[in-house]
Write a structure and sequence with these properties.
Blueprint lengths: L1 H36 L7 E10 L11 E5 L14 E9 L10 E9 L7 E10 L4 E10 L5 E11 L5 E12 L3 E12 L2
C-alpha cells in the first residue's frame, strides 16, 4: 500500500510540474504576442479608400447607392436633419473616380444625431471580395462633420482582417449638394492576426 501511494504521489508531482511548465510557456508566448501586436505609432496594415455615396432622389434608382429610410427632412428639431436615417451600399475605390472599379463595398447606415450642427453616427461593414483582399472590416463611430478629419473605430473583422482593430480617418473630399458626397478613408489597422 505504501509503495503504491508513493509512486502515485511522485507521478502526480511530475504531472503538476509539467503542467506548470506548459502553462508558463503558454502565458509567456501570449504575453509576448500581445506586447508586439499593438504599436500605436506603426499600423500593421494601412490603405486609403474613397467612399462614394449617391443619394436616391426619386428618379435615379439605377445609380443610387443610398436611400433615406426615416425622417427625410429630419424631425423638425433644429435645422441639421436631426433623426434623418440613411442606409447605404456604397462603392469603395482606390482613387477619387466614381467610375473606377470598386475594391470593396461599404454597407450599413448613418443617422444625424445632433440638433445644433451637422453630425452623423455611422455603423457599417467594408466588404472586400477581390484577388487582393477577402473579408470584412466593421467600422462605427461619430462623424463630426465640422472637423476636417474624423476618426471612426475599426471594431473587428473577418477573413484577411480577422479580429482587426484600428482607426478609419474620414476626410470629406467632395460634396455635390444633398445628392453625392465622397469621403477619403485612411484605414490604419493596429491589431492584425
Amino acid at each position: 500500500g505504501g509503495k503504491k501511494r508513493l509512486k502515485h504521489t511522485v507521478a502526480m508531482k511530475m504531472v503538476a510540474e509539467k503542467s506548470c511548465i506548459f502553462l508558463f510557456f503558454l502565458l509567456s508566448s501570449s504575453l509576448l504576442r500581445d506586447s508586439t501586436a499593438l504599436n500605436p505609432k506603426t499600423p500593421c496594415k494601412r490603405f486609403v479608400l474613397y467612399y462614394h455615396d449617391t443619394m436616391f432622389k426619386g428618379d435615379n434608382a439605377a445609380n443610387a447607392t443610398a436611400a433615406t429610410i426615416a425622417n427625410p427632412n429630419g424631425t423638425g428639431l433644429g435645422n441639421f436633419k436631426f433623426g434623418k436615417t440613411v442606409v447605404f451600399d456604397d462603392p469603395m475605390t482606390t482613387d477619387k473616380k466614381l467610375t473606377s472599379p470598386p475594391v470593396a463595398r461599404a454597407q450599413g447606415f448613418y443617422f444625424y444625431d445632433m440638433k445644433t450642427t451637422y453630425n452623423a453616427w455611422f455603423a457599417y461593414s467594408l466588404i472586400f471580395n477581390s484577388t487582393k483582399h477577402r473579408g470584412i472590416l466593421n467600422i462605427m463611430g461619430a462623424d463630426l462633420m465640422d472637423d476636417e478629419t474624423r476618426d471612426l473605430s475599426v471594431v473587428g473583422g473577418t477573413g484577411d482582417f480577422f479580429m482587426a482593430r484600428g482607426i478609419a480617418t474620414f476626410r470629406t473630399d467632395a460634396v455635390e449638394g444633398a445628392d453625392y458626397f465622397r469621403v477619403q478613408m485612411d484605414v490604419k489597422l493596429y491589431e492584425c492576426y
